[in-house]
Amino acid sequence: MCGIVGYAGTREALPLLMGGLRRLEYRGYDSAGVALQNAGVLEVRRAEGKLDNLATVVQKEPAAGRTGIGHTRWATHGRPTEANAHPHVDCGGGTAVIHNGIIENFEELKGPLLAAGHTFRSDTDTEVVVHLLEDELKKGRSLEEAALAVVPRLEGAAALAFVSARDPGKIVAARIANAGGVIVGYGDGENFLASDVPALLEHTRTVSYVEPGELVVVTPGEVRFLSKTGERIAKERETITWDAIAAAKAGFKHFMLKEIHEQPRAISDTLLGRVDRASGRVVFDRDLKLDEAGARALGRITFVACGTASHAALVGKYLIERLARIPCDVEIASEYRYRNPVVTPGQLVIAVTQSGETVDTLAAMEEGRKQGARLLSLVNVVGSQASRMADDVIYLHAGPEIAVASTKAYTAMVVDLYLLAIHLAQRRGTVTPAESSRLLAEVFHLPTLMDAVLREEAKVRALAYHYHRASDFIFLGRGVNYPTALEGALKLKELSYSHAEGTAAGEMKHGINALIDQSMPVVAIVPRDSNYKKMLSNIQEVRARAGIVIALADDDDQEIADRADEVIRIPHTNELLTPALAVVPLQLLAYHAADRRGNDVDQPRNLAKSVTVE
Length: 614
Ligand code: AGP
Hints:
Layout: E1 3-8, H1 13-24, E2 31-38, E3 41-48, H2 51-60, E4 67-73, E5 88-89, E6 95-103, H3 106-115, H4 127-138, H5 143-150, E7 156-164, E8 171-176, E9 182-186, E10 191-194, E11 206-210, E12 215-218, E13 223-226, E14 232-233, E15 238-239, H6 255-261, H7 263-271, E16 275-276, E17 281-282, H8 292-297, E18 300-305, H9 307-324, E19 328-332, H10 333-336, E20 347-353, H11 359-370, E21 374-379, H12 385-389, E22 392-395, H13 408-428, H14 433-443, H15 446-455, H16 457-467, E23 472-477, H17 482-496, E24 499-504, E25 521-525, H18 532-544, E26 548-554, E27 566-570, H19 578-597
Parallel strand pairs: 18-19, 18-20, 20-21, 21-22, 23-24, 23-25, 25-26, 26-27
Antiparallel strand pairs: 1-4, 1-10, 2-3, 2-4, 5-6, 6-7, 7-8, 8-12, 9-10, 9-11, 11-15, 12-13, 13-14, 16-17
Helix pairs in contact: 3-4, 4-5, 7-13, 7-15, 9-13, 9-17, 13-14, 13-19, 15-19, 16-19, 17-19
């Protein structure tokens, strides 16, 4: 969480920093601030709350300077107040720091600084860094020399950037472990820094990534990468191909709505080039180096993921077990790391992550690597840490996802996992060629089916408006749509702030039935699949207890209308693909309920897009 930006060049930095922060606001919106270095002094502006508040501050009191840093905060240590907003400055106000992540040993470091007479003005873990720098700079060191002395003393995971009036025209940034990215963007006589690619796209597409343990010194004319011991590092420059326009709202009220509607296109992009027409085989081109022998030797797959990505992983478990007959587990990444997991020979760890920067997922990957597992990342953001850490990468090709609530990345994950299951099944000989061609033909039909679902938006919106005030919801699913129930509930919770529980329908009688009464809407995912009859029985049980049944059913299902209070229709498709289709109306339901409540749909309270703290 938290977004950081930096600029060193010949133009006024303030509008560039504000523009970059605007693109990163999804990473945190508890406060924002900038520090510009101007004629031997540092001008700092900060404001509590959203970036608009900072925009008002800088309009009233502009800050000048051609080198500067900016920050948008997701609070970890210290309340979301102006005093805790970044940048934090040293006692003299001449040096500033911005930070994403957590400094775990900050209390230990703070004691001696207080004893030495430093004045702290915030409750953050971050502020200790700038006081440590102050001491080093007073010894006559350059900003990078000071950073090289301070950074090794910090424990935890952090991305940091510093400017100082004592060493003008320069930004120094550093990364400690995996706490969100730092990317350098190269310009002509100017250079940029940002936590994420969208903040750079307007200015440059040529970038380099700062790896954990590295520092970078950025001036208008030069970018120097250093190891933590100060040795110069040669860096590759990469070109980003994303289109900045794709990251704008394109006429939709919110990014989330745009991203929901982009799903047919995103899925077409995900599918592009994935099937070799001559052989009928799923190919992951240069991304996947796991060959036939490797696929046959796989003994177990462990998925590591968080939130929505973990629901996609759960779908992946069902698909791979069903088609490729490889035992799979889904591990919540934040748990996996701390319980000394057993990794056996031939085990593959698959990280599923939109951002590729979720710190718990990265830590779980590290744990898998330490225990000897092969690593595969299913990731959306090209060049992200998860893609760089893995032995193999499958990119989602869903395009930039800006709304905090994940939608198109989720369906792209499900589709890529469907393809991976077929790929592994083909290599292991657990599907016949006829069966795999049928499965593949059906997935290529998915974008058209999604279009049909999206055309029914008005009906889902009406339902959302009708039920948007309900304080509790239950989502029921079975088999491959149990994860759909979990995902539908999560979307509603994070956007509308209603309490929602996703559950396996068979579990109802083991406790959840006690919650049902005439005020409880129960969303039942009930396509005509192998669990259809069982789901009908579960719906009956809900109705027998006066619950309100909202059924998500196939468009040709006549039986369901008599058994439910409301019906949302989806086109019939192959059972293994229904998770990618059935989730779309649930995304719309959550979106419209939240919008009707007047909630901030793209930036729900207390959340952030990239979760780069543990
Ligand atoms: C999705 O709507 C959530 N905001 C969240 O659960 C998210 O999926 C999770 O934080 C994982 O993110 P990642 O895919 O970028 O790793």
